Amino acid sequence: MGTYSRIDPQERLEFNQSFSDADGNVLPGATFDMPDMPDEVRTVVTFGSVDETTTSITITQYEQPADQAVEYAVAGWNQSFDKMVRALQPGRTADVES
C-alpha cells in the first residue's frame, strides 16, 4: 500500500509505502517478524540519463531500520525490476505475474 506525494515525469518519484492486507489496511512490521519496521517508509526514486539508451535509477528509502529489512527491500526491488524487464520484452502481450 502506498501514496505518491511527488511525481516529476522522467526525473523523480516520491511515495510512502507500508505493509497492508488484501483490504488495504496497514499492517505493522511485527506482523512479518520485523518489530522495528515503521508503519510507513518514505521512498524517493530518481532517474538520470546515462546515454541515449540507458537510464540510471537511484532508490532511497528513509526511516527503515538497518537490519534484515534492508535485505528484504533490496530483494523486493530486484524482483520488481526483473518483472519489468520481462514485461518490456519485445512482443510481450501478457501480464507478468511472478
Structural class, please?
alpha+beta
What's the number of structural domains? 1
Distance between the termini: 18 Å
The assembly state of the depicted protein chains is single chain
- Helical content class: 10-25%
Spans of at least 5 consecutive residues whose pLDDT stays below 50 are: none
**How large is the count of helical segments?**
1
* Total count of strands: 6
The largest β sheet comes out as:
4 strands, antiparallel
Which properties best describe this structure?
37% strand, single chain, 4-stranded antiparallel β-sheet, 98 residues, alpha+beta
Describe it.
The protein has 98 residues and is of the alpha+beta class. It contains one helix and six strands. It has one domain. It is 20% helix and 37% strand. The strands form two sheets. Strands 1-2-5-6 form a four-stranded antiparallel sheet, with no helix packed on it. It has a two-stranded antiparallel sheet with strand order 3-4. The two termini are 18 Å apart. The model has no long low-confidence stretch (mean pLDDT 86).
Topology:
Layout: E1 2-8, E2 12-17, E3 19-20, E4 26-27, E5 41-51, E6 54-61, H1 68-87
Antiparallel strand pairs: 1-2, 2-5, 3-4, 5-6
